[in-house]
Amino acid sequence: MAEKLIHFDWAMKKLLRHKANFGILEGFLSELLKFDVQIESILESESNQDDEADKFNRVDILAQNKYGELILIEVQNNPEMDYFHRMLYGVSKLITEYIKLGEPYRTIKKVYSINIVYFQLGQGKDYIYEYQGEFVGLNNQEVLQPTLYQKRTFHIKQLSDIYPKYYLLKINNFDDIAKNTLDEWIYFLKNSEIVENVNAKGLQEAQEKLRYEQLSSVEKKRYENYQKNRVIAENVEFTIRTEAEAKGMKKGIQKGIEQGLEQGLEQGLEQGLEQGLEQGLQEGLQKGILETAKKGLSEGFSLEILSKLTGLSLTKLEELKKDL
Question: Is residue 3 included in any domain, yes or no?
Answer without folding.
Answer: no
